[in-house]
Amino acid sequence: SIDISLHEQMDYARILYNKGLYHQSLKVLDKLKEQAKTHNQLTYLQQVLFFEKKIEALYITRSMQDRADYLSKESDEVNDSLALVSQLSNLSLQLYSWYIKNGHCRNEEESITLQHFFSSKLGDKTLACTSFYERLYLYQCYCWNAFIRQDFLQYYRYTQKWVNLFDEEPCMLPIETAHYIKGMHNLMGSHFDLGNHRKLV
Predict the structure, then answer these.
(1) Residue burial 174-199, b: 16+ Cβ < 10 Å; e: rest
(2) pTM across the whole model
């Protein structure tokens, strides 16, 4: 489990820090940071950066002059990514809640209302989505929006993008197995829905 591995390394870095072994602690944190980046673990990455800044603030490492700027820039990027993931996961849940309350759109008016809600919440976030979790929740949002409006072609396209994410980053499969299974389930369902829709047309 990547969670357990990262947690253990963080504990080890803290032990070294508490013993006053700051350089050794930074080396562990550097290794931890690379693992967290590789596996898209933003919350751990945020913790590592906070810890690194805490050590640098003691002014004992005599690091390169631009390290403060580098850590600040890296922290801002991680915080921005976490905020984007939070906003997109919120929108995905809100769309799911919409479906539970209202079901599929029954007419054009309801479809326009939903699309307006979706567009106003999503804004211009699409282009900013580059990391695994940003794209995962973005695709889920598009899936729910299309499914509720019964736009089965778009639903199929975004469930395929959802599943393709795991082909692009196979290391995420054991970490987010439930999301992969849900994506595959939706993809198979989208084939069925799209086939039925074409028969009716």
Answers:
(1) ebbeebbebbeebbeebeebeeeeee
(2) 0.88
